[in-house]
């Protein structure tokens, strides 16, 4: 099962400079765990010590913020489009 | 009500003929007061177009002086103005474009002490700052005073923008409840920025400000615009108000403004 994950620029050094990767997982947190096996270190950038998504990072599934779905336990299915959006402050 | 002068009718003729604007719309623009926070990569293009379009009063805030490394993207400034305060450099060029605009300069760094008394005087606030402490301070102050805030952030080839109408649309904290700890998100100084990305996002902010003042079109309310220059893609993500938002939620925990000074290590080292 393939889910498209868009990787933000600051994390692309962990994904061999790829802006988009294919991954799998039944939930967002499972997808992050599988992603971390392929690209070690990515989970630590996305989640805090307790395994919750960091507060300055948002994850969208098909353009919907997962915080208004079921958070990190939001369900995923084949063909979903996951975007990782960190806060950026530059001006 | 005031009547447009012949000079104004001639100067703004190309936008007055737009049915969405007309003489009435031009009068709204001439009566509007817009505050631009930061005369840098975002503030530069934004200020140029708002001054040209005839926004009656424009406030400019920046505490820095022009540096040579700013000129690659901060088009308000020039080689000639390196070393002088950014707000002065900006006022100089903007007054040449449109001498009829009231340009008010604030050479200062926004703090929890001074921000409310400044933004109180404006109808629309544009955040073109370059650091998280200011961004959170501006968001919180705009929520407290119910001022519309047009947000944009840029880094490398990426940009984000959204328009915040407090209590009506998600605020910056609804989106990102707390600023990142130092070192977790790189700044433009560390990670770089392509000048045209700043230009693109700064003009999106100017466009939102004009539409808000004119009450035309659809604003980026409840939407986060994501731009990537390499893909040349614009995507819009849906964002929602967070009932648990610490500043605009049902039970706000932030009752007074916070200076997140300690979060910004680079700036701390600089000063």
Order of helices and strands of chain A: EEHHEEE
Tell me the CATH architecture of chain A: Roll
CATH topology of chain A: Ubiquitin-like (UB roll)
What would the principal axes of the Cα set say about the shape of chain A?
globular
N-to-C span of chain B: 48 Å
With strands numbered from the N-terminus, the spatial order across the biggest sheet of chain B is 3-2-1-4-5-6-7-8
CATH class of chain A: Alpha Beta
Strand order of the largest sheet of chain A: 2-1-5-3-4
Number of domains of chain B: 1
Q: How would you describe the shape of chain B?
A: globular
Q: Helix amount of chain B, in percent?
A: 25-40%
Counting DSSP E segments of at least 2 residues, the number of strands of chain A comes to 5
Contiguous low-pLDDT stretches of chain B (5 residues minimum) are 264-271
SS-based structural class of chain B? alpha/beta
Give a concise summary.
The complex is a heterodimer of chains A (91) and B (271). Chain A is 18% helix and 23% strand. Chain A is α+β, with helices and mostly antiparallel strands and 91 residues long.
Protein model, in words:
The complex is a heterodimer of chains A (91) and B (271). Chain A has 91 residues and is of the alpha+beta class. Chain A has a single domain, classed as Ubiquitin-like (UB roll) (Roll), CATH 3.10.20.30. Chain A has two helices and five strands, in the order E-E-H-H-E-E-E. A five-stranded mixed sheet of chain A has the order 2-1-5-3-4, with helices on one face. In chain A, strand 3 and strand 4 form a beta hairpin. Chain B has one domain: 3-Layer(aba) Sandwich (Rossmann fold), CATH 3.40.50. Chain B has eleven helices and eight strands. Chain B has an eight-stranded mixed sheet with strand order 3-2-1-4-5-6-7-8, with helices on both faces. In chain B, strand 4, helix 7 and strand 5 form a beta-alpha-beta unit. The N and C termini of chain B lie far apart (48 Å). Chains A and B meet through strand 3, strand 4 and strand 5 of A and strand 5, strand 6, strand 7 and strand 8 of B.
């Amino acid at each position: 099962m393939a889910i498209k994950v868009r990787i933000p620029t600051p994390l692309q050094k962990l994904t061999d400079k790829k802006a988009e990767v294919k991954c799998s997982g039944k939930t967002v947190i499972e997808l992050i765990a599988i992603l971390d096996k392929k690209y070690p270190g990515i989970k630590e950038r996305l989640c805090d010590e307790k395994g919750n998504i960091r507060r300055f990072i948002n994850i969208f599934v098909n353009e919907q913020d997962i915080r208004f779905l079921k958070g990190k336990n939001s369900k995923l299915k084949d063909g979903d489009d996951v975007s990782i959006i960190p806060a950026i402050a530059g001006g | 009500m005031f009547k447009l002068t012949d000079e104004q009718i001639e100067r703004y003729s190309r936008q007055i003929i737009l049915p969405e604007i007309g003489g009435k719309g031009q009068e709204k623009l001439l009566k509007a007061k817009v505050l631009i926070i930061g005369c840098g990569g975002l503030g530069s293009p934004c200020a140029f177009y708002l001054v040209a379009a005839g926004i009656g009063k424009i406030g400019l805030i920046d505490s820095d002086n022009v540096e040579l490394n700013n000129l690659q993207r901060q088009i308000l400034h020039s080689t000639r103005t390196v070393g002088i305060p950014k707000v002065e450099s900006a006022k100089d060029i903007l007054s040449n474009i449109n001498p009829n605009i009231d340009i008010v300069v604030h050479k200062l760094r926004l703090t929890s002490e001074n921000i409310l008394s400044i933004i109180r005087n404006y109808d629309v606030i544009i955040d073109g700052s370059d650091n998280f402490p200011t961004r959170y301070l501006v968001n919180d102050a705009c929520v407290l005073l119910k001022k519309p805030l047009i947000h944009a952030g840029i880094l490398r080839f990426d940009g984000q923008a959204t328009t915040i109408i407090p209590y009506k649309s998600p605020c910056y904290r609804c989106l990102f409840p707390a600023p990142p700890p130092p070192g977790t998100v790189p700044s433009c100084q560390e990670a770089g920025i392509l000048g045209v990305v700043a230009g693109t996002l700064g003009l999106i902010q100017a466009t939102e400000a004009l539409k808000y003042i004119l009450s035309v079109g659809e604003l980026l309310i409840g939407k986060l615009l994501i731009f990537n220059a390499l893909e040349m893609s614009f995507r819009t993500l849906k964002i929602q108000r967070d009932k648990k938002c610490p500043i605009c939620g049902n039970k706000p925990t932030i009752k007074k403004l916070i200076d997140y000074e300690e979060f910004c290590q680079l700036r701390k080292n600089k000063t």
